[in-house]
UniProtKB/TrEMBL annotation:
Protein name: F-box/WD repeat-containing protein 12
InterPro entries: F-box_SCF_Substrate_Recog, WD40/YVTN_repeat-like_dom_sf, WD40_repeat_dom_sf
Cited PANTHER family: EXPRESSED SEQUENCE C85627-RELATED, F-BOX ONLY PROTEIN 3
UniProtKB keywords: Ubl conjugation pathway
This protein's pathway: Protein modification; protein ubiquitination
Amino acid sequence: MLYAWDLQEGTMIWSSPAQQSSIMRLATLPQMHLAFTADLEGTVKVWNCQDAEALATLTMPQACFSLEICLTKDGPFLMVGNSEGDMYTLTVPELRHVSKVNAFKYSVDLLHCSPDKKWIFASGTHQNILPVVFLTESLLKPAEGKSPLSLSIPYSSCCRACWAPRRTSRITVMYRRGSFRKTGFTTFELMAERTGDQTDIQAHQVATFLLPPHMESPMWMGVGDGNVIVFESGPSLFLFTISGLLLQRFEDHQRTIGNLWVDSVHVLSTSMDDSLHLYMWEEEGRYPYLKSCCHLEHVGSDSAPSCYVSKAICDNMSIVCVVSRLRESSILVMYSLRI
């Protein structure tokens, strides 16, 4: 089932009917009060979070591995990546077919639209896949007989990628390399040049570095202004420049950090010690830095460690986190921000 909550009141305001298959992927379009789901059988649905039935339903030929909303000047579109490496572009809310392109041979695990909606990053986590960046316009307005404009990023084994919120053509990719699976970060600046009827796209590598061998490989990452990278390693949070200079290290958790939420204002870390920590970006000096703001812990009735904060997100008004419990169903915890 799918649920909608009023965060300020802490009350559930809508729920969908029970679905025949488990929901595996979720994306939202807050500007239009829409939610998008993909289930285990490859059925994609659009919900307005008011009516009992979905606004539109589309059954895909293969399982869906990724969903991404792209809100452009021509309207909103839904990008769907499947298990065969195909990427579909669909209208919203009708889910009508616009284009289909085969990005690579394996599943499309990551889909990220750039902040200015000019680029779409697609990748899988398989070690033989090179990430691909598409010019969004060529997906929304496909030319007959021509492939969408794209280029490959020459780094395989991609596991995360983030667009810089202010430098909208800059993307940082986290990858694993070598037999010991060392973690590295590489940053590219994308350019599109039009000459007559022809458009040429290029990727210029800005910086790259590998983490030290002794550092535990991170699972999550985010970027600040395009020049700094934040990621976790064990119970610690690190801030590096895109060239590999360590700027900050935080030790606010006792156990492994399990999830990160990063936007242009906040960084939220959640840990297996049943806590979350809020940081905020500050702009002073050559590089932005993180300011530690508050530490929140969920205190259960059982003295034994039976639950942990598995995920958290926030905006300028609220923090919402999921507390996963070992012997019971998970619970949703909401906080109001006073900053």
